[in-house]
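Input.
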Amino acid sequence: MDFNNIFAEYPYLTTIIWVIVIAVVAAILERLITRWLRKFIKRTEMPPEVGNGLVLTARLLILVGAIVALLDVGGVPSDILVSFSALGGAAVGFASTRTVGNFIAGIFLLVTRPFHVGDYVRIDGIEGIVKEITINYAKILTPDENVISISTQRILDKEFVNYRFRGEDSDLYCIGLELTFDHSLSTEKLEKVLNSVIERYAEKLPRKPEYKLKKLTRLERNYTVYIYVKQPQDIFVIKPQMLKEITEAWEKAKAQNQ
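Output.
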């Protein structure tokens, strides 16, 4: 059988064969790379969201390479192919800048793990418990029982605080209760009020609350009371409760001092 004559008589056979070869190579590459990535993800104990993102990225790259190869086999001129690729890439890049940014930021957060699900955090003024972390968003449960989704890119652009006490190995969370008082009471009497409330919580909490004088001006004094809890959900209850008790005790002391 003379293959040269067959290809000369049916020139489209060459194109069909190349299409088949490209499809088979792409399928084999996808299978091998995906299998290797999944083993790597399992070995390194990478979070599922990061692993799935890596697998998806690899598949997209293989698909793009296969499409470019098919267009070349189809006889699309190289200059047109390059122009089309550049235009398509620019359009996709422009349309997906935020998505790509979120994806990269999400991978960074999931790998570095500055906070975990269940941690009590404050991100750009939003305070609450982390309920979910994905490639694109982190969901925060706020004290008023609302769930707010914050993009991972925004998290990296803003300041955030993890209230886990002294590192991720700790089983305590420390939240600061900021208080402002005028000078109607002496420092001794004011701190006596703070101590009276704190003593009531000494047995209830895993660590006795503490306070520090943070700022002193001609008109006011600023204190921060540090509350320690094991369960972040307790912050939702204890923080406003302690604020109320301190306020009531302070007002009572002021009335007695008049």
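Residues 118 and 151 are 18 Å apart (CA to CA).
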